[in-house]
Specification:
By secondary structure, the protein is α/β, with parallel strands linked by helices. A hairpin with a 4-residue loop joins strand 21 and strand 22. Residues 81-85, 279-301, 545-549 and 640-651 have low confidence and may be disordered.
Length: 689
């Protein structure tokens, strides 16, 4: 059958090359001759050779016309005529869970054995794909290959190792279409995991597999697992550290909590914890599952036992210290028996910048910030011309009471400081001009409004504005009219709608902009008790002084503070370089893969980053059987694709057109006939014998 059978009439065009090759005659050669007066006149008879010539060129031209006509006619072929290698062929996508929990006991060895069994059991027509899943990185270890190349997949399997990250099954399923590719074979998605309950997403719908993929669970979690881990470490007052410990052990445990500062043990205390209550399990015959399993919520967490112990802190010098808390003896998952944190034993410094060091606005601001007793902040007053741009990184926050007093170089350095993770509070006033770059890039600075006004709206949800009492009592005689940028947030607005306090995010840092200075002819803000409260709360939020033991998680994005202008280097807990030479200029973000202390070195000095594992990986409670069945019921069928072997009762299979392949053949024949014509038709004259 053909899509357009009438186009087959074009096959008559094959007579054209036959006629051209048949009637083509040679041009006779003319020769000069003397006078013909002595010759008898007679009739000239000329006979041309009318034979087919250049057989190869003729055959190519005829085949070209036939291929073009058939391509446009569109011949249809039934799939029954196409040989099928193996109707039962499958793509076996082997997904290895390489999260932290897979290091518990012999789970990883069992996972490798399961993967090798799947590889060895693949049929000759099947295909194999190997995927490493951990954290937010789903990595294809070995691309799809036929099963007869199973040795290469087995070799790649031996190089996979479990890490310290957390696997999210929802992320795994939502990205599966990308790493599975556009395979036409039915997919068996082999998930080799301990099937942790804490790895499920918040929405059960995120577990839906891609169309045509059938999940196959290979559970390597060997029954109930007793794991003890450190949940949190917090500073308790000035001389103690509180350690929160949880366990899933069903028997009471006696452990020791050990505190180390900068690598030296300083305290050790006993700890007794347990036993855990465990989870109720639905057994066969004890109840029937609800008819609609998808409407039931996920059971989130096991009932773990917990305990708390206080460890004393020694007298420490004025600096930042590395603190490690560990449990002894370690259990079958020792990675979560250690917790790392940075101990800030120095009052953060705040730099107050004004036109002159003894200016009234600088004195007011420094006195207000210094009144904060918990946490204690140290203030340093500097004139704008006396700022050492190289030492800005040593300050927790910078307060500029007169933005117009800064030079262009200092303003650019302050912009780099904030973008690298610093914090600042700047006050606008007379002498300001519109800036196209730097801290105020995107601001539209207009005229000074001399009409008296008051505060109309305060965003009390912001940490720096929790106490909004008294703002309406402040008299603003003048203020600078500012149009904020697209991504800026107006925290305080005046009655005429102009912003008074604006928050903007710059890179890894944060900035507060007040559109009026601390001048008596502009406002009476500095004479109100609210001023002291605002400055204390704002600097407390900017410096983040309330976080005594800040740390990052494995797999989370961390702002490093490195910039293209500044550069630097990062070292992992083993002291190895994380960045290559071509990456140091733009590595403003880091995704740590190990637990411990990372060192970040810049031109302004070095700082430490404490990295811990995600505590959700430490909860080894398995996914209930009911939730597993719900997951399997979410499988979607693949798009209908009729293959050989359909019965008579089914819909006839769709026919396949060969027009595309015939058109490709015509293009190849056209190129071949051009080459043949250039070879045969170079010489067009006949040379007489």
């Amino acid at each position: 059958m053909f899509l357009a059978p009438t186009i087959l009439a074009g096959l008559l065009a094959i007579g054209l090359p036959l006629w051209l090759h048949r009637v083509a005659r040679a041009n006779p050669t003319r020769h000069a001759f003397a006078s013909l007066m002595l010759l008898e006149a007679s009739e000239t008879q000329r006979t041309a050779r009318r034979t087919l010539r250049y057989w190869l060129l003729l055959a190519l031209r005829i085949l070209l016309l036939i291929a073009l006509v058939l391509a446009f006619a569109g011949p249809l072929v039934s799939p029954r005529a196409v040989p099928v290698v193996n109707r039962d062929a499958r793509l076996h996508a082997i997904v290895l869970d390489t999260s932290l929990s897979m290091q518990y006991g012999d789970r990883w060895q069992l996972a490798l054995d399961e993967a090798r069994a799947i590889i060895d059991a693949a049929s000759p027509g099947d295909q194999l794909l190997l995927v490493d899943a951990s954290g937010r990185k789903i990595q294809v270890v070995h691309n799809t290959v036929p099963a007869n190349q199973r040795d290469t997949v087995r070799a790649a399997l031996s190089e996979v190792q479990p890490g310290n990250g957390r696997l999210d099954y929802g992320l795994l399923m939502s990205t599966s279409s990308a790493w599975l590719g556009t395979a036409r074979l039915p997919v068996e998605l082999h998930l080799i995991s301990d099937l942790q309950q804490s790895a499920t997403p918040l929405r059960f719908a995120d577990l839906e597999p891609p169309p045509g993929a059938r999940p196959v669970f290979h559970d390597v979690g060997t029954g109930p697992a007793a794991n003890t881990f450190i949940e949190d470490v917090q500073r308790e007052g000035a001389n103690e550290v509180a350690v929160q410990v949880r366990t899933s052990a069903t028997t009471a445990l006696t452990l020791e909590a050990v505190l180390s500062i900068d690598g030296n043990e300083v305290a050790r205390r006993p700890l007794r914890i347990g036993p855990a209550a465990g989870l109720p399990v639905l057994r066969e015959g004890e109840g029937n599952p609800p008819p609609d399993l998808l409407a039931q919520p996920i059971q989130r967490e096991a009932a773990l036992a917990q305990a708390r112990v206080l460890l004393p802190l020694p007298e420490l010098g004025v600096s930042t210290h590395r603190m490690e808390v560990r449990l002894e003896p370690a259990d079958a998952l020792p990675q979560d028996d250690r917790h790392f944190a940075m101990l800030e034993h120095d009052a953060p410094r705040v730099l107050v910048v004004s036109r002159t060091q003894e200016a009234d606005d600088a004195v007011y601001a420094a006195a207000a910030i210094g009144s904060l007793s918990t946490p204690r902040l140290r203030t340093e007053q500097r004139a704008a011309r006396e700022i050492d741009n190289r030492n800005l990184q040593s300050y927790a926050a910078v307060v500029v009471t007169d933005m117009a007093a800064l030079s262009s170089a200092t303003g650019a350095r302050l912009d780099d400081y904030v973008r690298a993770g610093g914090a600042g509070l700047v006050l606008l006033g007379p002498g300001m001009s519109e800036q196209r770059s730097g801290l105020l890039a995107g601001f539209s600075l207009r005229d000074v409004v001399t009409k008296p006004t008051r505060v109309a709206r305060v965003d009390t949800s912001h940490p720096a504005l929790r106490d909004a009492n008294g703002w309406q009592d402040v008299h603003f005689l003048r203020h600078l009219q500012v149009m904020p940028g697209e991504h800026d947030t107006v925290l305080i607005a005046l009655q005429d709608g102009d912003p008074l306090l604006i928050e903007r995010r710059l890179g890894a840092g944060r900035l507060l902009v007040l559109t009026t200075p601390l001048a008596r002819d502009w406002n009476d803000f500095a004479t109100h008790p609210l001023f002291v409260n605002f400055m204390a709360q704002a600097t407390h939020w900017l410096t983040g002084a309330g976080a005594a033991t800040a740390s990052a998680r494995v797999g989370a994005v961390v702002m490093t503070g490195l910039t293209a202008a500044q550069g630097g280097q990062i070292f992992d807990p083993q002291g190895r370089r994380v960045l290559s030479l071509d990456e140091t200029a733009g590595a403003d973000r880091l995704i740590p893969e190990q637990t411990g202390f990372y060192e970040i070195r810049t031109g302004a000095g070095a700082r430490w980053l404490a990295v811990n594992s995600d505590i959700r990986e430490s909860n080894l409670a398995p996914l209930p059987e009911r939730s597993r069945q719900r997951w399997l019921q979410m499988q979607r069928p693949a798009e209908p694709l009729r293959m050989a072997g359909t019965t008579a009762a089914e819909t006839p299979p769709a026919r396949v057109s060969l027009g595309y392949w015939l058109l490709m053949l015509a293009m190849a024949l056209a190129a071949a006939q051009i080459l043949a014509a250039n070879h045969f038709l170079i010489v067009r004259r006949e040379v007489p014998r």
